[in-house]
Amino acid sequence: MKGGDDSDSDGDKKRVVRSHRDKRWDQMQEAVASMKNHIKINDWIAVTEDYDKLNKLLQKAKPIVEREGTPTFYFLALAHLEEVTVPGRSPSLPTARAPRWLPEPC
User: Fold this and answer.
1) Taking a C-beta distance cutoff of 8 angstroms, is the pair 12, 5 a contact?
2) Residues whose CB falls within 8 Å of the CB of residue 44, separated by 6 or more in sequence, listed in order
3) Whole-prediction pTM value?
4) How far is 85 from 94, CA to CA, in rounded Å?
């Protein structure tokens, strides 16, 4: 039989079943981790892409967010992003290098 060998190798792997919530949260956490890495290397174009991706993922998870609330790591990521982008708040990012895509602080 042709498929006989394939079924044996499939039996060794266990399938992990994750909930829809866990999948969405994991995707969002991956976007946050990617954003933090891009901040470290000062790749601000990639940071903006990660930020957009994170917000799109949050919108996709809207039913879950309405039921359980916005995840804490989302707020922590936004706080970290604000910390490194607002001029004068972070010693590691000079004022001249701060991204221009954020509004000026009041």
Assistant:
1) no
2) 38, 99
3) 0.65
4) 9
**Residue 82 contacts residue 39 (beta carbons within 8 Å):** no
CA–CA distance, 7 with 102 (Å, rounded to integer): 54
20: which residues sit within 8 A by CB, 6+ positions away?
Answer: 64
CA distance 105 to 19: 39
Q: Where are the domains of the chain?
A: 43-90
Cα–Cα distance for residue pair 56/32, rounded to 1 Å: 13
Which pair of structure tokens corresponds to residue 58? 């949050």
The C-alpha atoms of residue 84 and residue 88 are separated, in whole angstroms, by 9
The string of pLDDT tens digits covering residues 70-85 is: 999 999 999 999 988 8
